[in-house]
Amino acid sequence: MIKKTLELIGEYILLMKRVFTKPEKWSIFWKQYFVETESLGLTSVALIGIISIAIGAVLVIQTAYNIENPFIPKMYVGYMVRESLILEFSCTMVALILAGKVGSNISSDIGTMRLTEQIDAMEMMGINSANYLILPKVVAVCVFNPILMLFSFLVGILGGWLIVAATGMITLSQYTEGLRFAFNGYYIVYAVTKMIVFSFIIVTVSALYGYGPKANSMEVGRASTRSIVAICLLILITDLMLTQLMLN
Amino acid sequence: MIYVHNICKDFGDQQVLTDISVNFEEGKTNLIIGASGSGKTVLLKAIAGLHSIDSGRILYDDMVFNELEEKERKLIHKKMGMLFQGSALFDFATARENVRFPLDFFTDWSMAEKNDRVDFCLARVNLDDIGNKFPSELSGGMQKRVGIARAIVMNPRYLFCDEPNSGLDPQTAIVIDQLISEITHEYKMTTIINTHDMNSVMAIGEKVVFLFEGKKEWEGSRENILYSDNKPLNDFVFASQMARMIKESKS
Prior knowledge:
The complex is a heterodimer. By secondary structure, chain A is an all-alpha fold. Chain A has helices spanning 2-19, 26-41, 45-66, 76-115, 118-125, 129-167, 172-180, 186-211, 217-247. The longest helix of chain A is centred in the middle third of the chain and has 40 residues, at 76-115. Chain A is elongated and about 70 Å long. Chain B has one domain (2-226): Rossmann fold, CATH 3.40.50.300. A 6-stranded mixed β-sheet of chain B has the order 6-7-8-3-9-10, sandwiched between helices. At the A-B interface, helix 5 of A face helix 2, strand 6 and helix 3 of B.
């Protein structure tokens, strides 16, 4: 187990050494960057939007239900929703969702290319396949996911607003007052930092599992599953470390 | 010219190649034949630099390929073309884009110049109208021809073909064989083909190397292959009923 883990870390370091080299041609890199932004970033917008709006609404209902004490102002519902979204849901939970969607996509795509010798074909041409295939994905996801995180935050707030407007469990002015109460801009920096780190983990770890040798299509599926498990664990561990580092 | 000298390769406990030395001649179609699992693909991929070797030397002209630095190996890779068993066309690109792929990376040509070269290569493999189709929309034979066009687009000096006829009907297989042979002579390339198809051996094999259980068992020309007294070779060559009947009728 320990030997396997150390081997995996070694493979990861060697792969990253090949990924983070100067691209053969910048024009090709930028072209791939936009392709990856569309396929890994833009296609996740709807999914994240739907989940965030629902979570925002549910947070309002649950928080309002739990604040029964008349001495606690109702505006705390908005405050709690904002803090929950920015501190944990829109970065960590969204990253875990993206680990499933983006991570499995990358791992299976690269794994299939390995299995069908497309990666060998690139190496034969003298192209650094790791750099060509992985670097644009890393940059695209690390740039786009923080935007996606801010989008998730805003849509979550909107979800809360909609449920407040629909049910009247608190007034809209109480909700907006709570959203504006004791706002700490540093939390945005904290959340964006976390999202960038999580995005890096999602792409590089899924690429590592996809890039390894494959004997058959079942191995591609297994590698994809293993990559998601590894990414989720790493995200949770990194979340603990970053929270300790940045909020204490 | 490519010369492999005493190369050995194992995967863990399994010895795949043992002490193989062969001289692959320039301007000729050199064939590596042998049963499945005899080490043909591993040998071809080792020569092409896709597998590392445990010992021995691989020489491209006078350069020891397996001892070169990454940058120098890359320069030799640019002189190579390879047709893979499953064609290995990029799923994300059309047939034209597949052929143009190395040009995009390694030339500063204008798009018009690149398109001219792509048209020329596609015409050379008798494919004129399929440029904008994706690999999944092409038949197996067409995919192989696009693969050949992509392999020759950079004017390589060395051409490697891994089972070029696998999965093809006999007529298409002949077309592919002839195409590879013609291109080899036209551009004076050193071509190494890995096959277990005896039709290919008899049609285009100018030099034949027979592998048996990871060792070089026999080496010679296609003319001599029928008259060899090497038992493993005879078992392989005359494995089919038709081949045995031809041998009996000749004898």
